[in-house]
Design brief:
Radius of gyration of chain B: 16 Å
Number of strands of chain B: 1
Order of helices and strands of chain B: HEHHH
Structural class of chain A: alpha+beta
Largest interface: A-B, 30 and 31 residues
Number of helices of chain A: 2
Largest sheet of chain A: 3 strands, antiparallel
Oligomer: heterodimer
Number of helices of chain B: 4
Helix content of chain A: 10-25%
Strand content of chain B: under 5%
Chain lengths: 179, 114
């Protein structure tokens, strides 16, 4: 994953003009309290009262006939209430989505920062186990030989070696180089 | 200083102070993110404050701090944000907060060593 990929994900979306800003809240009751109250719909004026002597035919409610159907439909004859939902279209297979790219990239950065912080704060003077390194000798007395760490190459001319016991007061794996 | 005073400072005042500092830091980071990057969203101060102090608590607790961005994401989704954007803002908050704190710690250690 390249840095350009992360930048591509982080690129600002161009909002079309007139896009409505979405308001976020954890208090739904006050969700729209800061919005301007909408104007109340215009109430139509009451029609003028009819003058005296005016009459109008008003339809009366007729009592519906209470008649039972001759044959009740069997429940299997009834048509299904809802149509069966169509099978969902197959989702297009994608590689890695933008969100996953972004999440992985940022996590890697975060872990790198944490590790860098831990390494950066480690100081040799505080004896936290950091620092140090191999102290490999570069010269060798051809008659006596030299004791070196096993990870070090034997210095010339003592090119032959065998595993030796540790020097007094020193821990680790050492070898004795001799000519 | 008495033992009681030491215990009070270590177990009450220090965590509360750190919590307050982190809450303010998170609030500032969230506010900046909303102003500069997530401009299509607007969040009321009360909600932002609540999310800030909740995620700050999570950030202070060991082990849980590694997953505090998930808590932030859940809260943002709950407030009505899209899941993708909620993940983005919560991870950005996590990274920015870690960078700021790491900077402070390193600067402080450098100061002590000198």
């Amino acid at each position: 994953m390249k840095f350009g990929d992360i930048l591509k994900i982080m690129r600002r979306r161009k909002l079309p003009p007139g896009t409505k800003i979405k308001r976020l809240t954890l208090y739904p009751k006050e969700k729209y309290s800061f919005e301007k109250p909408e104007k109340a719909p215009d109430i139509p004026e009451k029609p003028a009262e009819n003058p005296k002597g005016h009459w109008q035919w008003v339809p009366t409610r007729e009592k519906p006939e209470m008649k039972a159907p001759e044959k009740l439909p069997y429940f299997r004859d009834l048509p299904p209430k809802y149509e069966e939902p169509a099978p969902p279209p197959p989702a297009p297979k994608e590689g890695m989505s933008d969100a996953k790219f972004f999440a992985v990239g940022v996590l890697v950065i975060a872990i790198a920062i944490v590790i860098a912080t831990i390494i950066g704060t480690t100081d040799d003077d505080w004896d936290w186990g950091g620092g140090g390194g191999l102290n490999c000798p570069t010269t060798c007395n051809s008659t006596v030989g030299v004791t070196v760490d096993q990870r070090c190459p034997c210095p010339s001319p003592c090119l032959r070696s065998f595993k030796s016991t540790n020097p007094p007061g020193v821990s680790g794996n050492y070898k004795q180089c001799y000519r | 200083m008495t033992d009681t005073g030491l215990v009070l400072i270590l177990f009450v005042l220090l965590p509360l102070g750190l919590w307050g500092f982190l809450s303010l830091l998170s609030l500032a980071v969230f506010w900046l993110l909303f102003k500069l990057y997530f401009r299509e969203y607007e969040m009321d101060t009360k909600t932002m404050t609540r999310i800030s102090y909740k995620v700050s608590v999570a950030f202070l607790i060991p082990i849980l701090n590694l997953f505090s961005f998930l808590i932030a994401r859940r809260l943002f989704v709950k407030s009505g944000m899209e899941k993708k954007d909620a993940l983005k803002i919560s991870i950005l908050w996590f990274v920015i907060t870690i960078v700021i704190i790491a900077t402070i710690v390193i600067w402080d250690l450098t100061f002590i060593v000198k």
